[in-house]
């Protein structure tokens, strides 16, 4: 078992991790002072002031344009419609709410204010100072999508200068995005009320694709959608909502879906497909997660002791699942194989309890709960985003990089801590899915949107 | 598919057993449903104890047991009709005339008649179980001002229930035609039967309740206007008197009886629920995946192996299940993939792979030809037309614009019929399959380097060298030439004359070529037709009935798209896994033709989606048991095709540059390799 004490001490403030060479993380004074890699990654900075969240006050300017020549009867009918109808529908709504409160008393997590609960269940937290809601690399090309606070999505491509901006009437509270595998154009977006699948023509020069390019998938009761996962073969899309006990399996092109429902746990907060497509992790808001096998769609229940499953990631061959549990500072591993009936219990593979390093810049404390996990596609590196402690100054969120080894026994070995520029707080981490020369980690931080780190395995 | 059931081992051994199992499960579920029904229909809000004791007493009564037996018989009949009428390829007629023809088709009439009768039986049981005023048809008159010897009066409530049963039976049968309820679609994921049943149970309950509500509304309206006719008739024939002291039910006061409507609705829900459950169980059982052996050690089992079964044309359900099995094995089981890639023991030929890939490629090419023919027909006419004369139902069937408003209900299927050949919209398929019976298929189906279906040929089909192609073009174009003049008229004649004879579509495609010679009489007839057509075209009703909509023809083109989707998935997964698993390189020999087929199909599909209405999405149907998956199959096929090509290109990467395909395809492939499609 690996612990943080075995790590080399983190860099003092002001130093930036640049890349990894010969098993060591190399640091420098600023991100620009190293020889560029094969592709120069863009460093994007979205100033928060330019992004305004959706606010559309319903101040109607209807009267100014209305032709007031309609008869008294029509006007009175309109007035009746406006007031009586609204009152009536208000009553019906109140009745419905009252009835649903019974439902809520059975499932306590359902009564939480939905909008407020999204950040709670989604792994990344949208604090107000954070301009990026979600981030997704294209699985095959050098292209990524960034969802911003104002609910627009920008797509950056290494080979073209145009960065299309996607906006849609229904695109609110974007909480997850994923590109469709084995496809150049389809991007699935989990929104507040529905699921949008954008078809962005990669050869098009348009900077503002029309909302006709988006396919709207919705199912009654299935909102807000907070997590989506494409099957690696590109044929199915799974979506999950923390207030819906069923998880939906979509055939996106045909727009039909199959709900998969199991008793217990409440909704589904997070879904993640193993890279070989054989298994699917579905975490719930309670202390329970499920692992579905995707051939006959049966599931194994995994009750956790402490809290809900906070984050999970699959090894590239789909045989191993690493996950972390809320309230515990360890990483668990589950090993699946087709021969035996599956694992009986999870093993602890890394201990992330708080460790204090005393260096030149004063004492630095690292460790804590895991916010998210990312495993690079070659299976060599594991990045762990650790939550910081807001009260103490020397204890901020930090990324720990592990080396992974699967034979003879599965092991995590320490590699180092990654530090960004001063004041930047990492929020999202994702590995580049098809980087040829090792593992390319992308970090989306609170001030800097992207700080790429290439770990060349030389 | 009763006519071919005798010939096929699969229908005999598998489908029949599956149907039997599904029916027996629905019979086993009957007691539970009946109990629930009794509790609901005898519901008394203010006497809960009396209610419970009454219901419990009724559960063991002889009349209930007898009703249960009758209901089991009903379920058996419904199950039998499910088995006889189901289809995996929906037939999509597109106009009101076609709808009419389908509804009045003798086969459909039998269906409706039986459902009427069976509905009456169910309602009789329901009225017996409901008891009280519904129980019997006659009752002794309360006060006999008429001095008859026997004072039996007609119990209108009972009659009302029986007629409701007949009405619901008919509307079930009718809606089955309208909503393609006999179409069995395959699920996108595999699930165990029990879990699938459990998952769709709430939906079925909701559907039957909603559908019953609509039926009650329609029935009550009908009874209000015409209720006196059956009442008078029954009372005359059975010599029952009508008690004038009671309200007659076809009055406003009689019908606005809340408890009557509630009982009717609950009984209707019960009726529809038992039937829907039977349909649902049948669908679940029949679409369950079936594992065919890839190769067999015994010669007598050879016809049950995957390569043989895939080439099957008669039993469509078997072909579909085989393709599904191919798609599944190519994704999930390495050991069975190994068998596909293996060589035959003496000789060392990859027979399995050759047969499988040939069959899949034949499917894809057939679809491409169908699309090309359709596109050609549209392009030359300036408006969408059915691809051929043989698909009469389809030709008359493009829905009128106005029928879109009634979306969901207008796509009436043709009456389910024994499909001798794979029932597909385009005649191209029929032709190709016909021809393949006579001659070995390889030549037209192997897209060699200069395939006639590559881009330039798509645009102008006329001058093409080679006898094979020539026959094909003539056969494709002839129906089109034939009907260039009388679009409207030919549609009507087709549906009127052939409407009853739709069961034999096969001869149609072969007939057009000889008829092509322009004779004087034909010319004269042509002119007559033209005149009549001009006359008819001015009548609003005729236009309304015969108007065509390209979306329906587009749906019809892709009606069997599920087979192609599986073929694409199976082929692409096999090719992708051959990169690491194919020891002898058997796949490499067919890789050029696979890529060629896929790319030309991609081109044809792209072109098809450029047609007006081809890419418009259908309106979602609300709560009905009819499956509307077929309406979006073309989108699914387009997506599956792209994914399949990407799967191959992303697996092979730069190695594909060494595969020798035509320059046009090479260019296209390059686009895919750069992820620019």
From TrEMBL, chain A:
InterPro entries, per the entry = Aladin, Beta-prop_Aladin, WD40/YVTN_repeat-like_dom_sf, WD40_repeat_dom_sf, WD40_rpt
Q: Which GO terms describe its cellular component?
A: nuclear pore
Give residue ranges of the WD repeats.
268-295
Q: Superkingdom of the source?
A: Eukaryota
Q: Output one GO BP term.
A: nucleocytoplasmic transport
Keyword list, A-Z: WD repeat
Asked whether the keyword Acetylation is assigned, the reply is no
Aladin seven-bladed propeller domain ranges (all copies): 128-444
Q: What is this protein called?
A: Aladin seven-bladed propeller domain-containing protein
Organism equals Pygocentrus nattereri (Red-bellied piranha)
């Amino acid at each position: 078992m690996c612990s943080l004490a075995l790590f080399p001490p983190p860099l003092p403030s002001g130093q930036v991790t640049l890349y990894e060479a010969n098993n060591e993380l190399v640091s420098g004074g600023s991100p620009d002072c190293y020889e560029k890699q094969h592709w120069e990654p863009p460093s994007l900075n979205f100033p928060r002031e330019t992004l305004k969240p959706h606010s559309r006050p319903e101040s109607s300017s209807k009267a100014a344009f209305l032709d007031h020549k309609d008869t008294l009867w029509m006007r009175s009918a309109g007035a009746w419609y406006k007031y009586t109808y609204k009152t009536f529908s208000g009553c019906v709504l109140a009745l419905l709410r009252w009835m649903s409160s019974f439902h809520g008393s059975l499932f306590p997590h359902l009564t939480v204010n939905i909008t407020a609960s999204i950040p709670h269940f989604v792994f990344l937290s949208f604090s107000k100072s954070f301009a990026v809601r979600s981030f997704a690399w294209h699985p095959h090309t050098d292209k990524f999508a960034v969802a911003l606070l104002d609910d627009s999505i920008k797509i950056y491509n290494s080979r073209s200068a145009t960065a299309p901006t996607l906006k849609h009437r229904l695109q609110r509270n974007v909480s997850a995005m994923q590109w469709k595998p084995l496809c150049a154009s389809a991007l699935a977006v989990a929104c507040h009320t529905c699921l949008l699948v954008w078809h962005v023509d990669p050869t098009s020069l348009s900077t503002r694709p029309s909302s006709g390019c988006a396919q709207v998938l919705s199912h009654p009761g299935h909102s807000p959608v907070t997590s989506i996962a494409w099957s690696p073969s590109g044929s199915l899309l799974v979506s999950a909502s923390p207030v819906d006990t069923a998880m939906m399996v979509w055939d996106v092109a045909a727009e039909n879906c199959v709900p998969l429902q199991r008793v217990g746990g409440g909704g589904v907060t997070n879904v993640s497909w193993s890279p070989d497509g054989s298994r699917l992790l579905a975490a719930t808001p309670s202390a329970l997660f499920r692992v579905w096998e995707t051939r006959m769609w049966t599931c194994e229940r995994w009750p956790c002791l402490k809290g809900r499953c906070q984050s999970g990631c699959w090894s590239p061959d789909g045989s191993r699942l690493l996950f972390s549990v809320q309230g515990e500072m360890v990483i668990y591993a589950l090993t699946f194989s087709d021969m035996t009936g599956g694992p009986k219990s999870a093993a602890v593979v890394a201990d992330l309890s708080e460790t204090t390093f005393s260096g030149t810049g004063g004492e630095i404390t690292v460790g804590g709960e895991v916010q998210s996990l990312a495993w690079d596609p070659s299976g060599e590196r594991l990045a762990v985003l650790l939550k910081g402690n807001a009260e103490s100054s020397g204890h901020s969120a930090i990324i720990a990089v592990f080396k992974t080894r699967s034979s003879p026994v599965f092991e995590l070995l320490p590699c180092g801590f990654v530090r960004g520029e001063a004041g930047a707080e990492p929020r999202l981490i994702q590995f580049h899915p098809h980087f040829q020369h090792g593992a390319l980690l992308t970090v989306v931080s609170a001030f800097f949107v992207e700080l790429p780190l290439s770990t060349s395995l030389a | 598919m009763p006519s071919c059931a005798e010939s096929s081992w699969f229908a005999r051994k598998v489908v029949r057993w599956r149907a039997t199992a599904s029916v027996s499960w629905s019979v086993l579920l009957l007691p539970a449903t009946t109990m629930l029904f009794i509790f609901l229909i005898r519901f008394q809000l203010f006497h809960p104890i009396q209610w419970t004791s009454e219901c419990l007493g009724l559960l063991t009564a002889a009349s209930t047991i007898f009703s249960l037996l009758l209901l089991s018989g009903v379920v058996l009949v419904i199950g039998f009709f499910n088995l006889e009428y189901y289809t995996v390829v929906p037939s999509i007629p597109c106009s009101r005339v076609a709808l009419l023809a389908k509804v009045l088709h003798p086969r459909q009439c039998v269906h409706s008649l039986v459902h009427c009768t069976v509905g009456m039986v169910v309602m009789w049981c329901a009225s017996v179980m409901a008891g009280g005023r519904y129980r019997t048809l006659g009752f002794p008159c309360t006060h006999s001002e008429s001095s008859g010897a026997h004072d039996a009066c007609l119990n209108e409530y009972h009659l009302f229930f029986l007629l409701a049963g007949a009405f619901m039976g008919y509307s079930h049968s009718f809606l089955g035609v309208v909503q393609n309820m006999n179409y069995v679609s395959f699920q996108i994921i595999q699930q165990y039967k029990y879990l699938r049943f459990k998952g769709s149970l709430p939906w079925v309950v909701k559907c039957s309740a909603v559908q019953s509500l609509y039926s009650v509304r329609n029935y009550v309206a009908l009874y209000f206007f015409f209720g006196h006719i059956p009442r008078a008739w029954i009372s005359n024939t059975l010599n029952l008197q009508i008690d004038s002291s009671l309200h007659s039910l076809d009055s406003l006061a009689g019908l606005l009886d809340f408890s009557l409507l509630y009982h009717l609705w609950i009984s209707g829900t019960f009726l529809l629920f038992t039937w829907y459950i039977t349909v649902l169980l049948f669908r679940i059982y029949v679409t369950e995946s079936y594992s065919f052996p890839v190769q067999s050690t015994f010669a007598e089992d050879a016809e049950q192996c995957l390569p043989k079964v895939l080439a099957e044309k008669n039993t469509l359900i078997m072909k579909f299940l085989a393709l599904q099995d191919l798609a599944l094995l190519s994704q999930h089981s390495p050991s069975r993939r190994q068998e596909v890639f293996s060589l035959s023991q003496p000789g060392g030929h990859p027979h399995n792979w050759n047969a499988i890939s040939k069959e899949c490629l034949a499917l894809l090419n057939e679809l491409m030809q169908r699309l090309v023919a359709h596109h050609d027909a549209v392009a030359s006419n300036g408006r969408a037309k059915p691809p051929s004369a043989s698909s009469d139902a389809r030709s008359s069937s493009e829905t009128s614009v106005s029928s879109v408003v009634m979306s969901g209900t207008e796509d009436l299927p043709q009456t389910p019929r024994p499909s001798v050949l794979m029932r597909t919209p385009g005649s191209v398929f029929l032709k190709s399959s016909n021809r393949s019976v006579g001659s070995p298929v390889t030549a037209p189906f192997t897209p060699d380097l200069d395939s006639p279906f590559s881009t330039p040929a798509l645009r102008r089909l006329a001058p093409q060298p080679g006898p094979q192609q020539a026959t094909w073009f003539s056969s494709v174009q002839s129906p089109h030439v034939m009907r260039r003049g009388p679009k409207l008229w030919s549609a009507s004649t087709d549906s009127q004359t052939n409407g009853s004879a739709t069961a034999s579509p096969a001869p149609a495609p072969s007939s057009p070529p000889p008829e092509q010679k322009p004779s004087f009489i034909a010319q004269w007839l042509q002119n007559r037709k033209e005149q009549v057509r001009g006359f008819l075209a001015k009548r609003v009703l005729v236009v309304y009935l015969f108007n065509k909509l390209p979306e329906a023809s587009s749906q019809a083109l892709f009606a069997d798209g599920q087979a192609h989707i599986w073929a694409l998935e199976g082929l692409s997964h096999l090719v992708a896994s051959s990169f690491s698993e194919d020891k002898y390189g058997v796949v490499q020999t067919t890789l050029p033709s696979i890529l060629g087929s896929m790319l030309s199909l991609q081109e044809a599909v792209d072109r098809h989606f450029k047609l007006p209405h081809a890419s418009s999405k259908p309106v979602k149907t609300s709560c009905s048991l009819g499956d509307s998956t077929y309406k979006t199959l073309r989108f699914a096929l387009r997506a599956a095709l792209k994914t399949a090509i990407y799967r191959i290109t992303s697996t092979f990467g730069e190695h594909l540059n060494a595969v020798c395909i035509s320059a046009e395809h090479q260019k296209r492939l390059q686009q895919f390799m750069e992820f620019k499609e």
